[in-house]
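Researcher: I'm comparing several assemblies side by side, and this is the next one on my list. It has 620 residues spread over four chains. Same procedure as the others: predict the full complex and return the structure.
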Amino acid sequence: VPDHKPRITVEQFCGLWPPDMPFMQFYRFAVEQIGYGDARVRLGYDEHHIRPGGSLSGPTIMTLADYTIWAVVLGMTGPDYRNAATSSLTVHFLRPAPAGDLIAEGRIIRLGRRLAVGEAAVYADGETGGADPVAHVTATYALPSARESADSGSI
Amino acid sequence: VPDHKPRITVEQFCGLWPPDMPFMQFYRFAVEQIGYGDARVRLGYDEHHIRPGGSLSGPTIMTLADYTIWAVVLGMTGPDYRNAATSSLTVHFLRPAPAGDLIAEGRIIRLGRRLAVGEAAVYADGETGGADPVAHVTATYALPSARESADSGSI
Amino acid sequence: VPDHKPRITVEQFCGLWPPDMPFMQFYRFAVEQIGYGDARVRLGYDEHHIRPGGSLSGPTIMTLADYTIWAVVLGMTGPDYRNAATSSLTVHFLRPAPAGDLIAEGRIIRLGRRLAVGEAAVYADGETGGADPVAHVTATYALPSARESADSGSI
Amino acid sequence: VPDHKPRITVEQFCGLWPPDMPFMQFYRFAVEQIGYGDARVRLGYDEHHIRPGGSLSGPTIMTLADYTIWAVVLGMTGPDYRNAATSSLTVHFLRPAPAGDLIAEGRIIRLGRRLAVGEAAVYADGETGGADPVAHVTATYALPSARESADSGSI
């Protein structure tokens, strides 16, 4: 792997979406790390994320994984690709997610010219890297073309 | 098809999750119809659902589709199966979803003994049934066993 | 829907792949119909398709569905798009497929500029259109750009 | 991880399906390794696997990945679970697969009581473990219940 330096910093990444927008206030993401090909993001607990039965909702899990894999993609492409949009996502729910913070660990599967594919394992707080994720997600992102990236201006 | 009568009414279905829980206040579902093998649900617009760029977020779309296909499954199995849990979900995002209400139309693909599989097309308000959904979702649900259903008590 | 006429005929479609190539001799497809947005293909039985236990193999089912949805896409785009390539596929196996012919019924979910998404239900012979498919498949296809299509010459 | 010993040997695994059945003669699998939670399988080249354009067909890739993840599952459960059946599979095709042998590296995502989920990366010969797989697959397997396993007799 000739290039290990991420193309975006955590600070740049967190500046892409305004923190005062309602979406970002509802999903309290803490981006812990972005590398060239991987990323780790924590989602702060909120009672709105609880579904009947007391576990975290599936959408909450999917949102975190989607955001994390998007960070992975931007870590390999940079802020000019912030318009990369999720085109498909497959999630497997593996066990109930206990109420509390969630951590997603994402990595690239392949960065192509027009599409990027990545995956993420989602863990309950304190269980990262273990054998018992609460969910596994793969997702694809349509990459803006070079022209579109150039047109979209600087951050 | 020998049995066309749904096994759950819209009223019973809407009573399964308490309307005062934060999750249900955030996602304002209006269940328009549940049949034996299909269902239609509207999601009321909320500014929390808007992602940067002004379209509705992917998780919002996935949440609506998941809820709708769950209604399809309960329409074929009844309230004793309310513990049916999503085990996997695949979504294709087809175009940006304009700010406004969303409507999902779901139908069963197959009801098995342990698993149910369904699909949903998600439309912008006023475009249902047309050729231009904003997303398409397939999802699988693990069904509680007969014993588990019996143990879970009445609604 | 302003355009109901398919952009490729069954004869044109069947001429895209040489019938004497080993792949096509192994998978004996009979294209029964291609419309503007749907297609139906039969796969002739072959003992090579049987897996232990006596049912048809999963790959056999996936192959037929992939080929059928590709026909759907070409029915909307025409022979210039014959280089459309499957970029992802999700299959749900719903019940064992009995030894015998299989029939897939495909339809478009959305034709975009760069990606097409379609789905197919796969049936045992004599059960098409019924409530009991053996499998359900969704698949996406990367479309060649206008320039690439123009460069690829005539059939 | 308290238990590192696989529950099935390569020899036992290869005895599960008769080598003289047409399916196994068409797909020449060489199981290189089965561990407790991972497996590696090679697929020998055959001209029947070539699709128009000269690359290996998608079904060939899916077949290899499915077989490999099934080996992963049996490596954690043992031969009594040989009736574990694929219930769903999602594949992302990442680039054309050159004519030649293919190698799949599979690993478990989660082994549950009723379902197992695994993934595999598929590589061209000589490129395993690198950053450029030709495909990525996730698949789920319905596990036979303890009673069903007991009834199914010994190998």
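Model: For your comparison table: Strands of chain D lie at 29-34, 38-43, 85-93, 102-111, 115-124, 135-142.
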